[in-house]
Specification:
Length: 336
Amino acid sequence: MSLTLSRARDLLGRFSECRVLVVGDLMLDRYVHGQVDRISPEAPVPVVKVLRERSVPGGACNVALNIQALGGQAELCGAIGTCAMGDELLGHLSRAGVGTEGVFRDANFTTVVKTRILADRQQMLRVDRESPDLGDLMKFPDFSDRLERVLGGAQGVILEDYGKGVLRQSVVSRVLEQARARGMPSGYDPKDNHELDVKGVTFATPNRKEAFHVAGIRDRSPDVEPLLDEHLRSVSERLRALWVPEHLAITLGPQGMLLKSGDAEAEHVSTRAREVFDVSGAGDTVIATILMALCSGATFREAAELANAAAGIVVAKLGTATTSPAELLAALEEEQ
C-alpha cells in the first residue's frame, strides 16, 4: 500500500469540507420481517406472519448516506412521486442530513420502492414499484432549475445509475458539461443493462460483472490474478475506449481493484482478508470514498486505496452499511 497513515489522516481531515452532488435513481428499500408457521390453504405458498417492518434509503440515496458518514455533505438530485412513500424517503434523508433541494417531485411519477419479504433470515420475495418511464427530465423546467442550483454548490459529482430512468443522456451530458467547465471531479457507477455516453468523466467504478457485460466479453477467468488476466485487461481497454475516463477502477470483490489511468500500466490494489457478511452497497462506498478523496487532493491511487479499505469495512457488516473516518483510520492502522 502506497497510502501512509499520516497521508490518510490528512485526507480524511479534509472530507468535512467536501460538498458532493449525487445524481441518479432514488429509491426506498422496505423490509418486512416475519416468520412462517404454515402453508396457505388458498395456494401452495407459505404464510408470512409479519413481526416488524423497516425502511431505509436505497439506490443513489445510499451513496449520499456514505458521503454523510464519511464526514462530507451530500446533495441529491433525482425524481420521486408525491406519494406517502416519497414522503417517507425524504424523511429518512432529512434525518441523515442529506440535502434534497435537487429532488424533483411529480404526481405522475411512482417512487421506486423495493419491498423484501424475509422469514427466518431468508429472503422469500421481492416486490418492486417503479415508474415505467420518467421521460426526459430536462424538459421539466423545475428539474432543470434544481439541477443547475445544486451543481453550482458542489465540489464533485457522482452519476449513480440503477437503470430506473433518471440518468437519461440529456441529464448526464449536462452534468458532465458543468463538471468539466468547473474543473470538478466526476464519478460514474454504471448499470450493466443501461448504456450512456459519459466521455470525459473523471473516473468510473464498474464491478467485474458490469465491466464484462458492457465490454461484451465473456468472463472466463474470474480466479486469475488480476494483472495476469488477459480477459480483464481486454475489458479495461474496451471500457476506456467507450467511456474515455481519466481513470478506471474495476472492483473485483475479494481480489480488490484493477486500476487503469491513461497510458500507464494497469495497477492492482489488493484487499486485506476479512470475514465477509454482505457485499450489498459496497460499490456505493467505493465511489463515495474515491470522489471525496479526489476532492480532498488525493491522487487516484491514494483514493482507490482508501476506498478499498472502506469497502473492506462495510462488507463485514450486515446489510447495506457505511463507514466513518475513525473506522477507516483504525483499519489502516492495522495494515501498517
